[in-house]
Amino acid sequence: MFTKGYTKKRSKKDNSPRNPGWFQAGKPSGRSRSQTSIQIPESASASTSCVRQTFQSSDCKIETTGNICTLRSQADADLKREENKALHSGMRWIDSQLTLSLKSGELAGMYTLKCITCGFIGDRIKMYKEIATGKPGPNPGQPNVALASALQDCPIGNTTVQQLLAGMDTPTPCRSSMQRTSSRVAAEMVKLNKTDMAQKLELVKEDNRKRGVPENEINITVDARYNSNTIVSKKKPGQNATQAFALGIETMTDKKYIIAAVVQNKMCWKGAWLRGKGFPIECPGHEECTANLYRAAALSEYKLGKEIGNQLGLQKCLVRYVTTDGDGRSARGIEDALTALEPMWKVERLADDVHLGQSEFRASLRA
């Protein structure tokens, strides 16, 4: 006969299979209300569909319990693998305690196994992979970097993610560590985007070579958008917007690749905090400043267009036609930037379909 085992009915407070009182071989539980002795015959004919295996560690002296017996389907049993796993660090499944720990700033943690009988504690094993940075200090975990990269294209931030994780009863990393990871990921994404836009511009040049036209002459469309519905503010003098974004999209191919991107930003949290503490700090100019425009300066589409022209000029590319809206001056900015590459170069502005139709409609009403 096998070693006798005892089972008990589950209750709401004792509904976890990790509870050591749920199943104990050879020792009845004091909390059990009804116990049933299970006897399994040793004959092969009575247990042809199950595999019996006994685990006993030589490093751990156990007197309170007997050998551990496990029963499962014979087709799903891997005795060699299970024996190596059960005897890891001299511990047995039923006599080990699992301890989880979470480092500050890590979304995933580490676990440690501790033998309840002899007190042996195994090594801490990480439940995540790291990304090598080549810099001093601990390497960031892959889940943290993946979360930070996903938040770059998501309307929520680190604070909202902390609230979501807390709502799922999951330990949350500290916000300062999440912000540092987000800053590093944002810097890497900027580099990747610049490299990708440069590669897309080379594809446009290759397409021009196949067509037999000058490879360095392209046509683009440019438009800017702001982080405000209105330009004029009713509460303060000057513009209401604090950020402006402009994209340069080529119109030579059907793909419509984005080949240039420019951002004007007045906001800097660190500079505002230092000025509130009394430090004579101005943005931009100090360390870790996120602003590239003075907080009282005006957002200008001319400067956005000039920066787009500078980006295209780095790859010896000239713009012949620029399609913009009627109130934009980005075409003039691109022309002034390209004169450094070709002094006699002229850029012609074309009106987009929407503004062209509106201007023609107004002209017909005045006729």
Automatic annotation (TrEMBL):
Residue stretches of biased makeup (Basic residues): 1-12
Domain Mutator-like transposase: 101-365
Annotated coiled-coil segments of the chain: none
Region: Disordered, residue numbers: 1-43
UniProt xrefs under InterPro entries: Mutator_transp_dom
Compositionally biased region (Polar residues): 31-43
UniProt name for this protein: Mutator-like transposase domain-containing protein
Species name: Mytilus coruscus
